[in-house]
Specification:
22% strand; four-stranded antiparallel sheet; alpha+beta; five-stranded mixed sheet
Length: 311
């Protein structure tokens, strides 16, 4: 709750500051307001007063809601602290130039004459860093998730060859990749191939990682794309201490989907639900969302026990 408040308050302050400044200055503003400035500080884009007010408020409100919801959903994830700090920094970085733009447009006859010195960029960046650092400090590190106790072990005979493998697919990534590729094709068909190229590249990048194969065998744990041989996640058997099947919430525990990096924790998280959690001797947990995780964990524990007994 505290982190959500720390995320929402800077945006509320920025919205209030911009709205009050705009309404107080409205009668002193030209019909068209300079809203964008070139590298030399001169105005190069303009909006009506009404459009400028609502676009600024709308942008701050939308981003504020986005960051606040992300922070609230990732409440159990240590990355929520970074989300809160990023939100506060974004609010300051956007709020400062919006207010400054209104002040720069006051009492001018022609908005084309408005200019802003570029040193303000350094100020807004410093304001963003300061706001983010303050939110980071106030948010606190939070409690780290307790490691799950080891699961049961499968009894294995010496020399017995065993292996387990499952494939897991992310519908969200598949839909995202399909939408991006479809948008790129549409943009190209309309004659704007330059606009479609980035979407096509991003879609083709998402598609291979929408499905992964999780394998447990004498080598340990391997997670690889079902399409590409590299990159892959491999945890060698000698590094593994224990394994267990767990339930994870993609947003709540890891702050999102994909390959997630957290303090003492790594995860290949393609969905919420059942997952395999593997603990190494270095104290790091590797979590992979996959069905039948209890069998995979029991097999890994059995392989670890057999290796330890034979050492």
């Amino acid at each position: 709750m505290r982190r959500s408040v720390l995320t929402a308050v800077p945006f509320a302050v920025a919205i209030a500051a911009y709205t009050v400044t705009f309404l107080v200055s409205r009668d002193r503003l030209p019909p068209r307001i300079a809203t964008h400035f070139a590298a030399d500080g001169r105005a190069d884009d303009f909006m009506s007063r009404t459009a400028a007010l609502w676009s600024g408020v709308g942008m701050l409100t939308g981003l504020g809601l986005l960051f606040t919801v992300l922070t609230a959903l990732s409440r159990r994830d240590p990355g929520a602290r970074l989300t809160a700090a990023s939100g506060a920094g974004t609010a300051a970085t956007l709020g400062y130039p919006l207010v400054l733009t209104v002040l720069a447009n006051r009492d001018v006859r022609d908005s084309a004459e408005v200019s802003l010195p570029m040193w303000h960029i350094a100020v807004l960046l410093l304001a963003g860093v300061a706001a983010g650092a303050l939110a980071w400090r106030l948010a606190g590190p939070g409690a780290r998730p307790e490691p799950a106790p080891p699961g049961p072990s499968m009894t294995l005979a010496e020399g017995e060859a065993v292996a387990w493998s499952r494939t897991v697919t992310s519908r969200a990534l598949l839909l995202t990749a399909g939408a991006l590729v479809g948008g790129a094709v549409l943009a190209t068909a309309l004659g704007s191939w330059r606009a479609g190229l980035p979407a096509l590249a991003l879609g083709l990048l998402c598609a291979p990682f929408a499905g992964v194969r999780v394998t447990v065998d004498r080598r340990g744990l391997t997670v690889a794309s079902t399409v590409l041989p590299r990159p892959r996640l491999a945890v060698p058997l000698p590094d593994i201490v224990s394994a267990v099947g767990v339930q994870v919430d993609a947003m709540g525990d890891f702050g999102g989907w994909g390959y997630r990096i957290r303090p003492e924790r790594r995860g290949v998280v393609l969905r919420s639900g059942e997952a395999l959690s593997v603990r190494t001797g270095a104290g790091r947990d590797y979590v992979v969302t996959v069905d039948d995780s209890a069998t995979a964990a029991a097999l890994l524990n059995g392989l670890v026990d057999r290796r330890t007994a034979g050492a």
